[in-house]
Amino acid sequence: MEGPRRAAVGFIFITILLDMLSIGMILPILPKLVESFADNNTADAAKIYGLFGTAWALMQFFASPVLGALSDRFGRRPVILLSNFGLGLDYIMMALAPSLGWLFVGRMISGVTSASISTSFAYIADVTAPEKRAAVFGKIGAAFGLGFIFGPAIGGLLGGVDPRLPFWVAAGLSLANAMYGYFVLPESLPKERRSAFKWRSANPLGALRLLRSNATLAALAVVTFCAEVAHVALPATFVLYTTYRYGWDQTTVGLALAFVGLCTTIVQGGLVGPALKLLGERWAMILGYGGGALGFAIYAFAPNGPLFWIGIPVMTIWGIAGPATSSLMTRLVPADQQGQLQGANTSVNSVAELVGPSLFTLIFAYFIADGTPLHLPGAPFIVAGALLLVSMLIAGSAVAAMRREQAAAQER
Predict the structure, then answer these.
(1) Comparing 105 with 150, which gets the higher pLDDT?
(2) What 8-state DSSP symbol labels residue 191?
(3) Chain centre distance of CA 28
(4) In terms of C-beta density within 10 A (0-12 exposed, 13-18 middle, 19 or more buried), how is residue 149 classed?
(5) 39: Cβ contacts below 8 Å, ≥ 6 apart
(6) Rounded to an integer, what distance in angstroms lies between the CA atom of residue 92 and that of residue 289?
(7) Please, what's the b/e burial string for 361-399 (b: 16 or more CB within 10 A of its CB; e: otherwise)?
(8) Cβ(174)–Cβ(279) under 8 Å?
(9) Model confidence at 385, in pLDDT bands (50, 70, 90)?
(10) Taking a C-beta distance cutoff of 8 angstroms, is the pair 378, 290 a contact?
(11) CB-CB contact of 90 with 106 (8 Å)
């Protein structure tokens, strides 16, 4: 990779790291803050928290394709900067929230301002050769892991002092991120490679049309959807599940999430590239989604906290699958549609996040409620593991079919 492009990847790495650090800090705190407004009733808090997640995803569903199309028209840099600045203001709003209503509005605003991640992936596609994107996506994915190593641990410790303090610190990080980008981040999309803004592509349904333009792309969009629904089980129920079943406090939850981040960093920062070289994209996706399903099974059935911890490194094998899927999808669309692709992918993720929070929190609430015919707190993780198995089967079949078509075309 050339020097300037390598530097650009470094800038995006820092941008995502600071984003994930701030998000990670509030992750162990927000569910408990919601619970405090719900008179400390875990089942009621789970339902409310699910509605919060659904509202966040709904706003992102409508905003992401617009921002993706705008980044194709005006460049990646302004979208990333505005997103980070808005996120910082949103954290300030949530830090001051006197009621559930204020928190709810804050989550809706964050759904609009959280597009910097998908735009950042379009940025990487701009500056990285197609054959190198999977490995770079893996390294960028390590920023997610690093953020979740330190974010939840810091958030858990700060939350023990004051439940609002993590929001203030997260706001400072997001605003610092915006300032960093303003002075350091270069534009990745030259004017001659930009495309006109079209509302047809910017609305959610129009953005999804791009994913139907190729059979393999459509199949991978289904894979992305199923995997993202499964992923929602973690932020939706992790804190509530571990405090309910194992009696963990905020500090223990924060340390567990930090361990998730450490394992994710190791996998995405060090194993994605070698795994792709050794296995290829198809088997990397099969291994990743299969490992995630096994991790969810351990989460669901672990009878105590120490055994639950064993599931964390197993779960993070899932991190191999995401970069392989993203890389393959970027190779199926032209350069001037990378922003639309990432906006469309974010719309798919948003639909999943519309479904996931309420799905998993209601499942959790049902299986822990008084009088339930089957007391099974791990039920959300069982459902999530099944969805990853579906992703594994579809991904393996789609890539195999694509390669058969390519071989047949070469023979002709």
Answers:
(1) 105
(2) G
(3) 16
(4) buried
(5) none
(6) 37
(7) bbbbbbbbeeeeeeebbbbbbbbbbebbbbbbebbbebb
(8) no
(9) very high
(10) no
(11) yes
Cα–Cα distances (Å) from 126 to 153, 263, 371, in that order, read 34, 28, 55
Q: Which of 183, 294, 308 is nearest to 243 (CA)?
A: 308
Can you tell me the mean pLDDT for 365-377?
87
Rg (CA), the chain: 20
Angle at the Cα of 175 from the Cα atoms of 338 and 164, rounded to 5 degrees = 120
Q: What is the pLDDT of residue 309?
A: 94
Angle CA 7–9–12, to nearest 5: 115
CA distance 253 to 153: 8
Please give the structure tokens belonging to residue 309.
């911890």
What's residue 3's pLDDT?
Answer: 47
Question: What does the pLDDT average to over 326-334?
Answer: 81
Query: How long a stretch of residues is the chain?
Result: 412
Burial (0-12, 13-18, 19+ Cβ within 10 Å), 4? exposed
- Residue whose entry in the numeric block shows the structure tokens 């996706």: 285
Structure tokens at 68: 């993706």
**Whole-angstrom distance, CA of residue 271 vs CA of residue 274:** 5
Give the tens place of pLDDT for each residue, 69-91.
Answer: 788 888 888 888 888 888 888 88
Binning pLDDT at 50, 70 and 90, where does residue 319 land?
Answer: confident
| Domain 3-184+209-411, CATH class in plain words | mainly alpha
Least confident of 72-86, 220-234, 288-302: 72-86
Collapsing DSSP to helix, strand or coil, 190 comes out as: coil
List all residues 6 or more positions away from 376 whose beta carbon is below 8 Å from its beta carbon.
Answer: 367, 382
d(CA 141, CA 134): 10
Half-sphere exposure of 389 (CA within 13 A, CB side): 11
Q: Are 91 and 142 in contact (CB under 8 A)?
A: no
Return the pLDDT at 393. 94
Mean pLDDT of 12-19: 78
Query: What tokens does 131 get?
Result: 């054959």
**79 or 140, which is more confident:** 79
Q: pLDDT at position 76, please?
A: 83
Overall average pLDDT of the 175-199 stretch? 80
To the nearest 10 degrees (0 to 180), the angle between helices 215-246 and 321-330 is 150
Mean pLDDT value across the chain: 81
Structure tokens at 85: 């600045």
> Which amino acid is residue 2, in one-letter code?
E
